[in-house]
DNA sequence: ATTGAAACCGTCCCGAG
DNA sequence: CTCGGGACGGTTTCAAT
């Protein structure tokens, strides 16, 4: 087994505590990188690839979860293989923009089986809804018959998505 | 390395035009649901919760991977805990919209450490880039000093994200 | 905080229904 | 396709450093 790399020494002066944000050494960063690529990577392999003992790797992962850096382990499903090859973004404006109207709408949108994600945004649009549907006709009916019937939505713009690409998240950017 | 599994023969010669869409029975759907919530759910527990034997559950999951319904198991990291609490969507128009310009730009955007996701969209905007940054100043500099210096980007609109919410993907929508 | 070793337990292959 | 048994191997705990 290889000797442990030179760990970055803890800075003598700790910065202001940024909430749950903790300092990540290079081992933590490698673990995050690897588990983002494969959440089911056996702990033994993980340990080997980051250069620590299995028990240490186990504790590191637990610590990352406790500190909130890892929020979940999830299986990624392909909406195309699921029979919903068409994706779109629905940008909607809600008026009046009060929480009494926004909150029920948020719950409604998240309750739609077509919804993949919901962005609460600033700007002329208030909501951005990411949906996946079987075809254009389904999208059309979804918008007209289930979304636009809600009177609090005063404007809606549909943007078709050709492709979605995701990146693994790196550590704090420079 | 847990890359894509080896090719496997298509066991049942069912309908040919259903694309990769396979028929999902209720067991498959339950498995997808549970593994989206927790990719590390032990196979034994998974089997118990869907009501089959562990060996059966194992084969179901493998089949779901082979058929492309499950594309990956990933750890989800919290960008806020990572020190990048500010998210934004950058909508950019690229002109001329040729693949000779688009492809390098796509590679560039995906290479940025700030990038979380990239949407290739239809409409007046061509790209939608989801980024996470430490603060507004970082975002400002990212846009001015690294993105807008590229001459093929003729327009850019920034939308701040207050909150992102994701849903687990259900089976084929009715 | 990290480690090695041991006990535990889930995974996974296989033969059968 | 499903199931149970059993060998294998990984996970997890713990005392020590």
- Shape label of chain A: elongated
Alpha-beta content class of chain A:
alpha+beta
Strand order of the largest sheet of chain A: 3-4-2-5
Strand proportion of chain A, as a percent range, falls in 25-35%
List the total number of helices of chain A. Answer: 5
Largest sheet of chain A: 4 strands, antiparallel
Cα distance, first to last residue of chain A? 32 Å
Order of helices and strands of chain A: HHHEEHEEHE
Name the poorly predicted regions of chain A.
1-20
| Total beta strand runs of chain A | 5
> Greatest chain-chain interface?
A-B, 68 and 66 residues
Estimated radius of gyration of chain A: 22 Å
Oligomer: homodimer
Helix content, binned percent of chain A: 25-40%
Mean pLDDT of chain A: 89
Question: How would you describe this protein?
Answer:
Two copies of one chain form a homodimer. By secondary structure, the first copy, chain A, is an alpha+beta fold. Helix content of chain A is 33%, strand content 26%. In chain A, strand 3 and strand 4 (127-133) form a beta hairpin. The first copy, chain A, has five helices and five strands; from the N terminus they run H-H-H-E-E-H-E-E-H-E. The first copy, chain A, is elongated. A four-stranded antiparallel sheet of chain A has the order 3-4-2-5. In chain A, 25% of the residues are buried. In chain A, helix 2 packs across helix 3. The interface between A and B is large, with 68 and 66 residues. Strand 5 (153-166) of chain A pairs antiparallel with strand 3 (115-121) of chain B, so a sheet runs across the interface. Chain A binds a DNA duplex (17 and 17 nucleotides) through helix 3.
């Amino acid at each position: 087994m290889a000797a442990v790399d030179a760990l970055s020494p803890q800075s003598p002066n700790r910065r202001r505590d940024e909430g749950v944000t903790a300092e990540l050494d290079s081992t933590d960063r490698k673990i995050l990188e690897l588990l983002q690529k494969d959440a089911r990577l056996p702990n033994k392999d993980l340990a080997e690839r980051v250069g620590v003992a299995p028990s240490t790797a186990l504790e590191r992962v637990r610590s990352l979860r406790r500190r909130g850096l890892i929020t979940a382990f999830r299986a990624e499903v392909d909406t195309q293989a699921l029979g919903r090859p068409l994706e779109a973004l629905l940008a909607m404006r809600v008026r009046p923009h009060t929480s009494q109207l926004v909150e029920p709408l948020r719950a409604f949108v998240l309750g739609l089986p077509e919804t993949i994600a919901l962005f609460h945004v600033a700007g002329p649009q208030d909501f951005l809804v990411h949906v996946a549907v079987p075809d254009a006709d389904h999208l059309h009916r979804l918008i007209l018959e289930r979304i636009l019937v809600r009177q609090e939505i005063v404007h809606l713009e549909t943007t078709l998505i050709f492709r979605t690409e995701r990146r693994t998240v790196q550590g704090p950017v420079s």
